[in-house]
Amino acid sequence: MEIYQGIVLGILQGLTEFLPVSSSGHLVLGQLYFGMTEANLVFDVSVHMGTLAAVLVVYFRDITGILGSLFRFGARNTTESDGENLTIAWCIIVGSVPTALIGFGLKQFEHILFTSSFLVGCMLLLTGTLLWISRRFYKGEAGAAGKENGNKENPAANGLTFSRAVIIGLVQGCAVIPGISRSGSTIAAGMFCGLDRTRAAKFSFLLSIPAICGAQIISVKDVLETGGLIDPATIYGTIVSFIVGLVALKLLLKLVHRGKFHLFAPYCWLAGILALLSNFV
Known about the structure:
This protein is mostly helical. The protein has helices spanning 3-18, 23-33, 41-58, 60-74, 83-107, 110-113, 117-134, 144-148, 162-174, 182-192, 197-226, 232-257, 265-277. The chain is 73% helix and 0% strand. It starts with a helix and ends with a helix. The protein contains 13 helices and no strands. Helix 5 runs parallel beside helix 9 and helix 10 (182-192) runs antiparallel to helix 11 (197-226). The model is unreliable at 142-157 (pLDDT under 50). It has one domain (3-277). It is globular.
């Protein structure tokens, strides 16, 4: 892989990992455009770690808060303020189970899933439809009014339950299929379940952390077995994916907060149509 190709694919990964347009789908299409008929596992793992680092930076305070609450829970020294963090932590664990099961199930078909522009096109059309439907489920900022009035937010009122976490986890597992946006589908699923858009986005990205880590750990094992090497293109691509991903994630959160999430639907439809047409050109 040439350095310029690594940079272009790193930009694609950084933008599409967080913007609801499917990073895996765009990486497949980008690699096919560059004539890469076989997946570059080392590169894929590296750029995904770059965008994972962006999530850890943006949600650093939430992550440390959750870990602190879990530590105090283990020491039987929890406080009233730990309630919401513990709810989120248990829901992340519960939601990660269906994601892992579906992910393992689909892994045996990855040689088909990651080489078909036709499949990517169909799934992009599906993603666009989910985003467009989500505009009917926008809800106000739960808890915002209470905070403005100086009231503490009630952890039990945040709408996040085990059943909703399972549903979102199931959707996240299906997003292994290229063309289905992980962020787009899980945020939409959260809103369909009754979460307000800001909470749906926050839980979506926190839930992505164990999923991405687990997938990359498995991939690293495969890399070690095949003796893959990290070349300059991979290094540049990873750095670019982190920087671009950081910007893209902050942009998406602003758009979600403003109720503009569904505006990505036309792009997904257009990209899906072009991907389908590429099979006949």
